[in-house]
Amino acid sequence: MCKKRNGFTFVEAVFALALLLVVASVLLPLFTQIMLERENIALKAKAQQILDAALYEENIQKETTIVEGRTTFMIRSDYEKDNIWKVCVRWNDYTGRRAERCGYVKR
């Protein structure tokens, strides 16, 4: 006589494990991309803080370099027409893209 048995067969367990591995292999690159973009947003916020500080500083050099952790921020300033002062901050983010933020102040 055959008893009624509850539980998974070996094939069902292997299929469930394979399905889990496929889902994990699809989501892992997306998760790492999301983490990189999150760090890039933090870099953009830091660059904005540096830009704000540079705009309100009276005696800033024409070119200045600031190193924060793994990132190097380059500040460039010059006067444009009508006594408008332009300050730009450049950096490379964690994906290798070059980014820049600029601000203008009338002096």
Give structural notes.
With 107 residues, this protein is an alpha+beta fold. The chain has one domain. Helix content is 44%, strand content 32%. It has 1 helix and 4 strands, in the order αββββ. Strands 1-2-3-4 form a 4-stranded antiparallel beta sheet, with helices on one face. The longest helix has 47 residues, at 10-56. The model has no long low-confidence stretch (mean pLDDT 89).
Secondary structure class reads: alpha+beta
| Distance between the ends | 96 Å
Give the low-pLDDT segments.
none
The DSSP helix count reads: 1
Strand segment count: 4
> How are strands sequenced across the largest beta sheet?
1-2-3-4
Which sheet architecture does the biggest sheet show? 4 strands, antiparallel
Q: SSE order in H/E notation?
A: HEEEE
Average per-residue pLDDT, rounded, comes to 89
Rounded to an integer, what's the Rg over CA atoms?
27 Å
Which percent range fits the helix content?
40-55%
Strand content: 25-35%
Number of domains: 1
Q: What is the overall silhouette?
A: rod-shaped
